[in-house]
Each structure stands twice: as C-alpha cells, then as structure tokens.
Amino acid sequence: MNTIRRYAIAAGALLLACQLPVLNAQKVEPIAYGDMDQWIVREIYESGVIGGATKHLYELGPKDTIRGNNAFQNQGGSPWANSNVLAKVAGVVKTNTSVFPEQRGNGWCARMETRMESVKVLGIVDIEVVAAGSLFLGTMHEPIKGTKIPKVCYLVGYLSRANQRPSGLTTK
After folding, report:
1. Cα 23–24–26 angle (5° rounding)?
2. Taking the mean position of all CA atoms in its chain, how far away is CA 94?
3. CA nearest 143: which of 41, 32, 46?
4. In angstroms, what CA-CA distances link 29 with 107, 108, 110, 167?
5. Distance (Å, rounded) from C-alpha 85 to C-alpha 57?
6. What is the pLDDT of residues 38-60, one digit of tens each?
7. If residue 8 lies in a helix (H) or strand (E), which one and from where to where?
8. Distance (Å, whole) CA 69 – CA 72
C-alpha cells in the first residue's frame, strides 16, 4: 500500500510539473480594431466604360480616407481583411462593396451583404459573380485580375505582434 501511495504522489507531482509551463505559455491578447469603431474609407474611380462612378470601399483600421485606384494593404497594424475589393480585369476598373460600417448604439459594427455583380464591356469583359460579405483575419491581394482561382486572392490567419500564435483572442 505504501508503494502505491508513493507512485500516486510521484505521478501527481509529475503531472503538475508538466502543466506549469503550459499554463504560463497561454496568452490571450486583444485583436487590434476588434471593436470595429475605426474604419478606413477608400474612394475608387471605376472605369468610364462602365459608368465612371466613384465607389467607396471600407476597411477596418485607423480612421483615414484614401483616394485613388491603388491596391490596399492592411494599415496601422490592423489584422483584418474583408471581401471589399478592387478589380482590374482587361484594363477595366471595378469594385465590390459588400461590407459596410454601420452605427449600433454607441459604437459601430460591420454590416455584411451578398450581392450579384456583373460587368459587360463591348464583348471584351463579361463577368457575373456572387459577392458575399465576409470579414476575416488575414490579407486580400489586390487588384483582383480574374475569377478563375479565387483562393490565391486572400491569405487567412493571425500572428501576434511577437509572430507567435496566441492561445486565445478577444475583441477588446
């Protein structure tokens, strides 16, 4: 009986010793801009052959307005990306906006919609796509140049500022 008790105590001590490093390694960190109260507004000028309208694309990040048909890269340490994109297909500039900031109570949230987008230009470009609003941690590669391989357009994932994977994330 004494031997069994010693083995039980030794096993318990070993189990506790193995758990201590794991408990110290767990880290929960807030996601930057997770409260969704700050948005970047992008003003994009679509091609004249499809109407030449000025469209607005919205991105989570530090409050700013960016004018011009430039590819977007996450700013201000924002890890967020969404399905709002700038596309340049056969020289035609077109946008899709399906994620919008919307005020709720004392703050903001993301409104996501699903839309059918189509572009027809003199038989050169004839595209119809379903664009679903999505918000994710990662990056979107712009400009979109076609619809054949959509998975090459985005990178999903999150690394902390120390380039480590945290054990948990929170929005505040």
Report:
1. 70
2. 20
3. 46
4. 21, 21, 21, 9
5. 7
6. 999 999 999 888 888 999 999 99
7. helix 2-25
8. 9
Sign of CA dihedral 102, 155, 115, 70: positive
Amino acid, single-letter form, for residue 169: L
Residue with tokens 């307005």: 65
Residue reference for tokens 């991105």: 59
Q: Tell me how far CA of residue 148 lies from CA of 21, 32, 89, 127, 153, in angstroms.
A: 47, 33, 12, 11, 11
Residue 153 pLDDT exceeds 80:
no
The span from the CA of 83 to the CA of 136, in Å, is 9
Could you tell me the pTM of the whole model?
0.73
